[in-house]
Amino acid sequence: MEGSSNGGMLYHEVQESKLCAVHCVNTALQGPFFSEFDLAALASDLDRKERQMMHLSVHAGAPPAAAGDFLSEESHNVSLDGDFSIQVLEKALEVWDLQVIPLDSPVAEPAQIDPELENGFICHLQDHWFCIRKVNGEWYNFDSLYAAPLHLSKFYLSAYLDTLKGSGWSIFLVRGNFPKECPISSSEASNGYGQWLSPEDADRITKSCNSTNAPRQTQRTNWPRQPSDQFLSTEEAELLSEMEDEDMKAAIAASLMDSSPAVAVANAGDSNPQTESSNSQESKISQDNKIA
Which of 20, 34, 87, 262 is the most exposed place for a label (fewest CB within 10 A)? Predict the structure, then answer.
């Protein structure tokens, strides 16, 4: 079924603290449907049910060791730093009649062959979640570490998913009846980190970030690299053509390995030391050529 329309707008959430699971669920639903407190309540309920099952198991004669540490008070569905389990995300999406299916399961085989026929995926590695979603017939990467949704061509979608799998990411297919509309005018839409963007605004922000300072990502060994030219659409190729200078590419590559989860938002008034360094180096080369 086709994704939500919302008047042609895209809903995106920028990384706040370690709430990427919240951002992932909300961008999958295309609206500010859940807060961190909602997911924490779901995690608490799951923990309670798991402990009850383990207690029943022990009372039925199972050795206490079989219950493992599920009988402890420590949560198995949310970590102290706010990372939620896949079970919590499943429960949240089930509220909206959505099913979460591992992409490598037999039932998801059609999605492995033709992922563009689906409507959404959620991806997880280490302590980060993000959503890839089809909205109004177009695919976008709604990673909360990006300043805006990143448009993905249908061809690149398949290549990108393969890259994620090869890098160790867990990918889940999301199927069901996605919400059609979210009241944009509602006061609930202002949760502090969510924003509504037109596709044109999202593209403008992405290009601006690429031409100044690429979206910064937390340091992860298996983080997917920037797409290679052969998988890019015309729009995506244009983004790379704006960064032909090798020094600028090196600076952006270094930025991508930054350990800070902050998102770089374009600001015309901010100075860019990387660009200034590149310009200084070009000036020096020019002077050397004149002397020669």
Answer: 262
